[in-house]
């Protein structure tokens, strides 16, 4: 555990030291769970967005992208259910004065039971070696069965209590399980209360006539309310999708995991509108497509798993998370939800406007069903940073820190490094920079030893370093150093554009998706 915490701390400090992420308004001691993206963070974020947008909008003839407003008519949130039901159950510890999500305390307790089950399995795997039959062991070992049954019964009791809004029973469960404040060990809890996560704001100049608004807690509703506008103007037939990237805001109760749970964050969401009765087929398709999109990044298949929801949100008839192995364990990275016709129906009722589609094949009007894919941009950023940040010991015993980002996502594609500024090397390097800057985001650096400059660019994730030396002036070649292999080769300046493009083009990711 300590090792994982150290790894996570390293990610946080690396992100700050190399201009990826800063605490928001740091000179005023920051704002809890709000972060700013620095010069390299903004580039990485833009590249992630591009990868998502190209995969959704550019590769799919039947998906279009929009950019709807953050502020929406307040009835939107009544219709969507957010005013009444976008709550988290919170509980305070009377001694430490810390606030927790009651459901997360219980889920963490269950995760510890699962850890214990896993330990039994690992021990047995070691004991039996190649002869080990995991499935059989899980089905027959009494301790593993006990741990798993206990988890199941705790989670189903919690789900039932939350469904019935029986918050006294949620507290009773916490007390029965003797769950303590993880930091202080105190079991002195308040009652459990519901807390709405939406941020309120006001529209209008005078206090009397101001209208109460909310900052959107998800981008999806901007897509739903525009469904007919987009369908009619794009003239797409069902099935078709609307994609959007944008900010969302949630007044999270517990926001202690850096950019994993923020109060202001970005979502990349796609709503796929389908004929009623076909939604579960498309739901399965999108689950697989989204997993493939993640796998193309090369962060390791073993770091992803599906978590199919047993307790479904009021609007869904199927839902799953793609979980990623963050430094603090497997956690939700993306949600795929079959949202039925709940949202469009609710907007029809609250607005009094029809949100129906005439299906020429079925020769009828209906409210489409929706399959949604929703990923937190910041969470993917964290997944990339934590997975790609590595400390390596080199053959000569020296060490380096490298951020082995997928080259298409790297903030800087190549660093142009004159060995020295004088003797015309600086000017030659600037010429290369000026020639390549139309195609790639580059940096030019002429300070420090070349070794130090290589190390700094490794830590930034720059796929290539291009070193200009005296020979370059006469034979128009440079040394090209590869971030991952650290191999250096002599290449012609005229070849640089092709070589960098081959390595960093989005095509490398996108062609894996078909
Ligand atoms: N429209 C559906 C929706 O918003 P969600 O599961 O609440 O579903 C979707 O959110 C994704 O948004 C999550 O899988 C997660 O990646 C991201 N997300 C949610 N809350 C977040 C937060 N407070 N900070 C960062 N990302 C968050």
From TrEMBL:
GO CC terms in record: cytoplasm; extracellular exosome; microvesicle
SUPFAM superfamilies: Class II aaRS ABD-related (SSF52954), Class II aaRS and biotin synthetases (SSF55681)
Catalysed reactions listed for this entry: tRNA(Gly) + glycine + ATP = glycyl-tRNA(Gly) + AMP + diphosphate
UniProt keyword terms in alphabetical order: Aminoacyl-tRNA synthetase, ATP-binding, Cytoplasm, Ligase, Nucleotide-binding, Protein biosynthesis
UniProt family annotation: Belongs to the class-II aminoacyl-tRNA synthetase family.
Function per UniProt: Catalyzes the attachment of glycine to tRNA(Gly).
Protein's recorded name: Glycine--tRNA ligase
